[in-house]
Each structure stands twice: as structure tokens, then as C-alpha cells.
Amino acid sequence: MRNTNNNNNNSPEDQRKKESTLTSLDSRFNQTLRNVQGLLKGRSIPGKILLTRRSGPLDESSVQERTPEYERSLSYNEAGSSDRLAKAAEEEVQSTSKPNNNTNVIKLKTSTSEIENTSKEVQKSAMGARATDSARVMKFTKALSGTTVILEKLRELAWSGIPDYMRPDVWRLLLGYAPPNSDRKEGILRRKRLEYLDCVSQYYDIPDTERSDDEINMLRQIAVDCPRTVPDVSFFQEPQVQKSLERILYTWAIRHPASGYVQGINDLATPFLVVFLSEYLEGGADNWSISDLSLENISNLEADCYWCLSKLLDGMQDHYTFAQPGIQRLVFKLKELVRRIDEPVSRHMEEQGLEFLQFAFRWFNCLLIREIPFHLVTRLWDTYLAEGDALPDFLVYIFASFLLTWSDKLQKLDFQELVMFLQHLPTQNWTHQELEMVLSRAFMWHSMFNNSPSHLAS
Description:
Shape: globular
Radius of gyration: 26 Å
Mean pLDDT: 80
Number of strands: 0
Oligomer: single chain
Low-confidence stretches: 1-8, 35-129
Largest sheet: none
Number of helices: 20
Helix content: 55-70%
């Protein structure tokens, strides 16, 4: 590039070329900046906050009223994640156009500064605003009260969390177990519950002499795993609860011979047990006793758990077939995504010889149920079920966000320390805030990377 001190010696033609070059760079810069701002404005940021330039104070009512076309409606707690977006914007602009031009630098600093200032003000108003939002409850009530439930609208609402007392009905709808037409709901649920009873009597309530050796071994493995399921929650240690879990798992395994029972599926049934029991018992799970229910209610509870578990696993069948190829494929994608998002962590783990399969396989197998406090699981599953058929691919982003929560820590550990740390993650004191941050980062990374042509190289 020519030295600016020689500008006076340039010919008129050289001067025109230089001005044209600067104009082109300016144009590239402005276009890149518009593209980045378009990314920031075109997605639903936590609390439905739009990151735009503004001169006046933030109008909270307008923030809540704006509902973009459904992509994923984020939760309220990750306002701080907009700082990462601002940083990404700055890096994108700098890497795309690198003019030696003070005007462009000033524009960039002004833009990112305004974005950061917006995010800080947003953080003050957004934190905790959703959990007791009566307007949000009214939206759920309206969505569920019509003759026909619009499932896309329900998914949009459910992504950010479902009110506890509405969760059983919403989960049944999201999984396709209950029909969106309210007039058909009772008849279909009654028929499906009777069908489950028939399956139990046909496959479970029979003597071992009528089972094959493989079926006997499978039932024994289930009987061993049930007492190990969510050991920290006393409710799951009740013999009657374990018996219900055993019936559900064995019946499912017999009816799905391509996979049969795989360790980890027992964990996947537990959120359904807790959610559907909440329709019959009051208070928290620590105070529940399934013996307080009638046999009819226990049967209905098991049937609902069975059918919802079946619907969930239908969307990820190759996760639990021989060699579990679906999980292996997603672990590879997770490794590639982490490499792209946080190259220092990826490089350090590779240098230490740590394979992602050594820790992430359990995450995909049990959908993080063993990694976070159980009281947060149902909130996490609101987002899972709202994703529908897209869930397996979105799990990659959730787990990348989960792993990189400890980015700085991971880079300081050797192989043995990494293994121990990732097997005993310090999440025991997590609240909803930490979980919302994980989900928000996952949403942003999905928005940034999922449609990129070079994403997740094969």
C-alpha cells in the first residue's frame, strides 16, 4: 500500500484509483456492518430484545410486544450473551474488511459501543422478568384454550419454559401424544391408555417360562438399573415407583426390538414420571408418595409416560440401536463445533489426548439428566420438546454451550484432571439462571453457524 505521505506526488489518475479503492473498502465495511446488524436484529434475543441503534430510553412494553417469526424464542436470563454477539460483530467486520482508515475504525467502535450499552441496559430489565410474567401465562392459556391448538405457536412459547401446572398438557401436545383438536383429546387418551394396559398384560404380566433368554436377561438388567435411577431424589427410591418404571421400560423394549433396552433410557423416562405425577400430587417430588394414587391413576400415569417416551425416542432411533451410531455421529459434530467456536479449548483437549466420546457419549445418551440438578431437568426438557424433530442436531449446540461454560478452567487441566472434572461437573448449585445461559448461547451459536457452508466439516 502506498505511503500516505506521498499523496501530493500522485498523478490525478492514481488519486482517482486510490479514492475508488477507499470507496470500495468503505462500501464493503458498511455492507458487512449491515449484515452483522441484520443478524443481531433478525433473531429473537433473550427476553425478545432487539439489538439496534437507538437514541431514546428502552421501552419495555415495545420489547415484550415484538414477536418475530418463530425460530427459537429465547429465555430471559442470558442478556449478557449479547456482549458475545457484539464481540462477534466486531471480529466479523475486522476479518472481512481491513481498511487502513480512521473513519472506519471510528464507525466500528461507535457501533459496537452502542450495542454493548444497549445490552447492559437490557440486562437490568430482563433478569427475572419472565418467571412470574402474567402476560406470558395468558399467552399459554390462550394458546391452549382454542378448539384447535396451533402447535407452532405453542412451540414458540414452550421454548422459553412452560408454567409448571400447564406442563403435562403442553408436553402431550408437543410430542403428538394428545391431538391438537380438543374435541378428540379425551377419546384418544382413553384409547391409548387401554392399549398400554393390553401391552403390559401381554408382555410384562407373564411368567418367565414364557420369555426368551434374551427377554429374561433384559428384564433383569432393567430391574438392576431402576434403583440406580436418579438416586439423589428419594421419590425414585420407592419400590412402587421403580416397579412402574420397570413396566414402562420393559414394555417399550419388547415393542422396539431393533434397539431393545439400552442403559440410559431409564433416565429418559424420569422427567415424564415427575411431570405427569404432578397432575395427581401436590408439592415437590421430595414429598410425594405414589401409594397415595389409585390403581387407575397409576395405570394412566404409566401409560402417559410410556407413549411420550416412545414419541421422544422415535425421533432418535439410531441413538439406541446397535453401536449407537446416531450418538457417535453427534459426538463428532460436537467436537467440530467446539473446534470452531473455541479453538484453544479444542487444541488443549487434543494435546492432552482426551476424546470427546469419553465424556460426551453419556451426555447424548442421557440428555444431560445426570449432569445437572434434577429440579432443572423439566425446564431443560421444555426446550428439548419444543425443538421437535430438530432436537438431535440442536443438542450439539446445547452440549457445546454446556461444555464451554468452563472454557478457562478446561485449558488449565491435564488429561487425568480433565477426565475427573468432566465426570463430576460442578453443577450441583446451579439455578435456572445458569441453565438459561447455556440455552441462550446454544441458540446464538445455532443462529451464527448452522447455515454456514463450512460448518461441521465432514
